[in-house]
């Protein structure tokens, strides 16, 4: 039997590792409340009986258990069953995988990638997918990917290099006039050429060495599409998360675009979307499930009730995972019914200030509003314990906690606005407000979407600013689409959103250069000039010059020094954004769910796990604690 996964490449603690291993190759391996509880309960979750230990393992089971990262406590892999996901967002999108990856369990599993993050590794472990292996030239500029032969798209056509080449072009450069770019496209702008040496060999040449390159290609959203499908999408205008499934239906698009472990089965607007097992999937032993149903349950209380009642296998995802009160309920009442995983998000929530209008155009006002925020109090509100752990927030700067690029807790707690106790910061904030002419405060609004965890951020800031600065801030809570439109039109005062450093790859090339450099098509200065950019200023030029130098630097200490200069300036001086703690997710799954591996910062790439998830028995398998996955252990 052909071995599916030959090796993996680890992106380790130094960006120089890419060059050190230059000859190494990796191988394949709530928004508005909607009462859909009856939809969820009409399809109860049924567990597959665990295989009797006396029964001999099948070759497929042996293959899955031999994959790196398999955990013995998961038990023997089982086949069959349908995974039911309580989706916290409207079931709308599918056809544009580069933009729909975050919000749709029914989209990404229908595709394969060129290379990818290992589902049972972490965000630093890269393995082949459509590319069975790869090599890098001696000068570090040319990457050659050898493709698996005979992979079939769901329509039966053969995937070859031309499909990979057209996908890469579309991912990096977008459709003409569409404004649609791949998630990592700004990190691949140093591409100078890409071509097919033959039907099974894809070659990319870059103009300069950048240590993040391989990881950026594998970052989770470059789904290989059928060339014929891409032709159908020419001229289509996409929304922020892709085109709608309804558009696909209305225009009679076939959209059989992927080669992934699942293929599209059905779509019911506002109810659910379903995918089914690809019977001709090219990897031995995979996938294990018969299908996945993405069921729309936008109300967090209904989702949680469905999970604890055994009606769904997973409640929510990402920033719409379990709320602090729900985590407490799991610990107190449902510890045997819900397996939790505490994992770092790819960014943090906080406040963006509209610098195009008074008083937020005054850095003294932004500084004062940042100074009074009690980050420790926020972590406790978010369910943290006495050590400020295991809640839905954790202290951090722009760079995520716990890696070589991040500040230590001691460094963070030495910063103004972060230090404890708060008396000195509050006094300085009041002095700045008086100096700026706002001694008696002012009126403003805090805008965010109608999802409880976002509204909670607004409510926290509103209370802090009123208590310490006399600022009267009213809540302005909008449906998701209206919220996004208002933000892009600069129609707000204060806006609760994610940090510009949001990234699956927690290194400064992504969190600093991609987020703040003018040359990045994802940077705040281009996408959000009213709050987190400084267009046309000497300060923006300094950010550009310093981050360009950082991007070109391969020596870790020098890169860290340059990144830290920018990070401290943004946190302490210009303050376009006030983060109140790195967002942490408490994922909740039914005990039957096995093979899921919620590693840190993986929101944009978790979809790769679906090929390896299965449903076992309903018994507790994750030890004596609350957590099946815990980044602290």
Would you write up a description of this structure?
- It is built from 20 helices and 21 strands.
- 28% of the residues lie in helices and 19% in strands.
- By secondary structure, it is α+β, with helices and mostly antiparallel strands.
- The strands form 5 sheets. Strands 13, 14, 15, 16, 17, 18 and 21 form a 7-stranded mixed beta sheet that branches. It has a 5-stranded mixed beta sheet with strand order 9-10-11-2-12. Strands 5-6-8-7 form a 4-stranded antiparallel beta sheet, with helices on one face.
- The longest helix is centred in the C-terminal third of the chain and has 19 residues, at 556-574.
- It folds into 2 domains: 8-28 and 55-321 and 603-617, Periplasmic binding protein-like II (D-Maltodextrin-Binding Protein, domain 2); 342-583, Dipeptide-binding Protein, domain 3, CATH 3.10.105.
- α11 runs antiparallel to α14 (423-435) and α19 runs antiparallel to α20.
- β9 (262-268) and β10 form a beta hairpin.
Summarize the structure in short:
With 633 residues, this protein is α+β, with helices and mostly antiparallel strands. It has 2 domains: 8-28 and 55-321 and 603-617, D-Maltodextrin-Binding Protein, domain 2 (3-Layer(aba) Sandwich), CATH 3.40.190.10; 342-583, Dipeptide-binding Protein, domain 3 (Roll), CATH 3.10.105.
Task: Sum up the structure in keywords.
single chain, 633 residues, alpha+beta, D-Maltodextrin-Binding Protein, domain 2, Dipeptide-binding Protein, domain 3, 2 domains, 5-stranded mixed β-sheet, 20 helices, 28% helix, disordered N terminus
